[in-house]
Amino acid sequence: xxxMKISPFAPEYFPTLPxxxxxxxxxxxxxxxxxGRTDLWVxxxxxxxxxxxxxxxxxxxxxxxxxxRKALRIATDGPRLVIVNSGTANVFAGQAGRDAVLETAEGxxxxxxxxxxxxxxxxTGVIGVALDASKLVDQFSKMTLHADGxxxxxxxxxxxxxxxxxxxxxxxxxxxxxTLNGIAKGxxxxxxxxxxxxxxxxxxxxxxxxxxxxxxxxxxGPTFNSITVDSDTSTSDTLLLLASGAAAHxxxxxxxxxxxxxxxxxxxxxxxxxxxxxxxxxxxxxxFVTIKVSGAISDASAxxxxxxxxxxxxxxxxxxxxxxxxxxIVMAVGKAGEPAERDKLSIWIGxxxxxxxxxxxxxxxxxxxxxxxKQDEIVIRLDLGLGEGGAVVYTCDLTHSYIDINADYRS
Amino acid sequence: xxxMKISPFAPEYFPTLPxxxxxxxxxxxxxxxxxGRTDLWVxxxxxxxxxxxxxxxxxxxxxxxxxxRKALRIATDGPRLVIVNSGTANVFAGQAGRDAVLETAEGxxxxxxxxxxxxxxxxTGVIGVALDASKLVDQFSKMTLHADGxxxxxxxxxxxxxxxxxxxxxxxxxxxxxTLNGIAKGxxxxxxxxxxxxxxxxxxxxxxxxxxxxxxxxxxGPTFNSITVDSDTSTSDTLLLLASGAAAHxxxxxxxxxxxxxxxxxxxxxxxxxxxxxxxxxxxxxxFVTIKVSGAISDASAxxxxxxxxxxxxxxxxxxxxxxxxxxIVMAVGKAGEPAERDKLSIWIGxxxxxxxxxxxxxxxxxxxxxxxKQDEIVIRLDLGLGEGGAVVYTCDLTHSYIDINADYRS
Lengths: 411, 411
Fold this sequence. Notes:
The first copy, chain A, folds into two domains: 23-279, 4-Layer Sandwich (L-amino peptidase D-ALA esterase/amidase); 288-408, ArgJ beta chain, C-terminal domain (Ubiquitin-like (UB roll)). Chain A contains eleven helices and 16 strands. Chain A has helices at residues 63-71, 94-112, 133-140, 150-156, 209-220, 261-279, 299-310, 313-320, 326-334, 366-372, 400-408, and strands at 23-28, 40-45, 50-55, 80-88, 120-126, 165-173, 176-185, 198-203, 227-228, 238-243, 288-296, 346-349, 352-356, 359-360, 377-383, 389-396.
């Protein structure tokens, strides 16, 4: 998508993702669909690498998702592989799609001396076109795996993304420093339900799959599951957390071990950073929007109300038009199907209270709202006045560019 | 909205709505917001007129909705009034909004010799601005009610509508012919939940409120509740059915009386016609889309799956781009949260089967799909292959004009 404008929220540079003990990788041009760019990434974890993951809750998942769900539960003595291609999602491609998954896994298993059934596969791109696995398999034997290459990996898995997405953090477990590296892709069809398009986080920490899975489950709610670009939940969402075990810290048997406090913080930081990069690269974005909900009857209710506002086309177009149209926010709160009382609802944009007690706030001036809405980053705050439930969700506006990208391009 | 393009699906002319025994009406220019056009409609039913209604399920309804819900249950010996203004929705306007409702009802009650508490009120336009009731009350004493004027009424209640919407039908009850006239408005913020923006159906039939309400409840599902423009449920949705009782047919005590068969058919026809006119005047529409769902586990499940497809921005932009992108339809089926099995799902556009058995149909040619998508009216058919549940929903595409209308105009 060389003619696509870079998101105004793209980071100035790709962050430093240092080599991680226990992991090697490579990318290649397999020519699945795109020409002149990489579209294949192979990540190898050393024997004993533990893998946790969450996948799309869409009821029509892709063949790679079916395969990878099973592969999570396979124990193996050999290396642990992740194979990702862009250009086709290999979703709803019937037997040809299932055959392609098997051929890819077996081809990789032979070259990289891994167990096929333990390999994590992911494909991203157009739905309904089977992957030509031979294009990937042909590359495997030509690839040399290195400890470095995270930015190249982030580029290889892009589709409509306007820039590669990465994040890194370090944490202490006991006295030992471990590192987490994460990459992600995603720009449209983003309303993750358990995970987003594709995101991979690797660490040299020495943690079991059970601990990793618990950590991941606890963090996915306030990060990937709190962003939405267009309310459309992908068929391919995958978030993996891999741990090579190369770090020599103390033994950890539970996700709630106090020694993991700093690691939990670092994992949250990486997941949050990646999920923010995805929504900030939302298709056609001109404004980044944070919606903070408080006073709901529960956190879950607050989340659904926030998502109802974040997904409302009328709210999103008003923001694109720099219109502090809080009437549409009232509408979106009221249609969420959650407890709400008109006369207890308060609404702010940035520092300005717009509405309270079932009417426009006496102190509010339209000129204040108009000035605030010219900012690139908009914060909407809602208080339901009913209870203690809160949530924060993140979205973007709905612009002409979203229509251009999705009416003119089969993604 | 004089600069707004007329919907390509607008009827060529407004249908003939004949005078109805027992009803008189008038319109006026009250100057609530618009200049040089009517914005006020008064409808009067003779003493004994029965009224049934359904209102928005939005949890933040307008003050006129609160008032009118109560007014439905008031019995009165005097005439029955409906007062509608455009230009402001009088929603979320606090005490000033409630005061405006009372002032309007009391003003009308004095002039038209009705009981204030039995008057049906509705306001449509921007949210968050209180109605200046004096502008309406000033007009009441200047208005002369006539038996004719349905088209003028349909024009007076328009906001972003590009044309007035009306429908008429006759039905036999026993040997007596009765007439039903209906008008409606609505173009954006259309995802009715019990009713749509504003719709009024009047008849000279002699039916009790209980019978009218049962008839209305039975018909609102497959008509107004089966359309969506933008997934946003208004705070002002109102659908009223009024019967003057002027016709001299036999006594009817139940909605399921066999003598009402033809009336039920006529009521369905009028409601269906009006609801179709609303979605076909959807903001920015370039294509009208019918989504037929079969094989779901229940009718309710089929309806939710149809709505998930109808509200998907990615499906709607693909249709705008004339792209038979059935992969996005698969995605939207799968995200609906309803039972679905990828490998049992079949998808057609028009006569062409696109996908079946979890893969693209062998017979499908992209050129067939591309040719079909150039049509103005698109039919998408889905079979879940799970059960007997079915539903049909109606929507429009998502175009640049929708963004123009809603990013540039505070509606």
